[in-house]
Amino acid sequence: MSDAPCALRLREVARRRGTGADSFTLEVASLTIQQGESVALTGPSGSGKSTLLDLLGLVLRPDRCAEFNLQGADGVRVDVAALWCGGRSDALARLRARHIGYVLQTGGLLPFLPAIDNIRLSRSLLGLGDDPLVDTLVERLRLGHLLEKKPRALSIGERQRVAIARALAHGPALLLADEPTAALDPIHAQEVMALMLELCAALGATAVVVTHDWDLARSVGLREIRAIPLARGLGSATRFED
Ligand code: ADP
Ligand code: MG
Question: 226 pairs with which residues across the strands?
Answer without folding.
Answer: 42
